[in-house]
Write a structure and sequence with these properties.
alpha+beta; four-stranded mixed beta sheet
């Protein structure tokens, strides 16, 4: 019985100490998030966080009109360093949360930590638009 008590205490202390380091890269000024919405939907929420060596971009897209329906657009994501070099570019699909509230979420893992002063541009586009066409504008 005593061993369970010690296991619980160790588990509790590890939980309190926070075994993983988490940084909100937007809050600490490393990354600025710019949202470009479409006519049919908008980016309700977006965050970029670092968990140890993993960087995760996550967000929620919501339809502009009320009621049911799928969000048919996609998110184009571009991470640009302060000097203007594009560090990362990807078309991001999202997963429907519920047809009742017209929301969908997206989440991707980046392969490197952004440089300080980077700009993360999230653009909503309909499914007929392609990444190459959008970034060449």
């Amino acid at each position: 019985m005593k061993i369970y008590k010690y296991i619980f205490i160790v588990f509790y202390l590890v939980l309190l100490s926070g075994c993983a380091t988490t940084r909100d890269l937007e809050s600490d000024g490393t990354v600025t998030i710019q949202r470009v919405d479409s006519k049919s939907a908008y980016i309700k929420f977006a965050s970029i966080k670092q968990f140890d060596k993993e960087v995760v971009l996550a967000g929620v897209v919501k339809l502009r009109r009320s009621g049911r329906g799928n969000v048919r657009d996609h998110v184009d994501m571009r991470l640009t360093a302060q000097n203007g070099d594009v560090d990362y570019m990807q078309e991001v699909s999202y997963h429907r949360l519920s047809t009742k509230n017209g929301e969908a979420n997206f989440r991707i893992t980046l392969d490197k930590v952004p440089h300080s002063g980077s700009l993360l541009r999230l653009s909503l586009h309909n499914t007929s638009a392609h990444v190459e066409d959008i970034w060449s504008e």
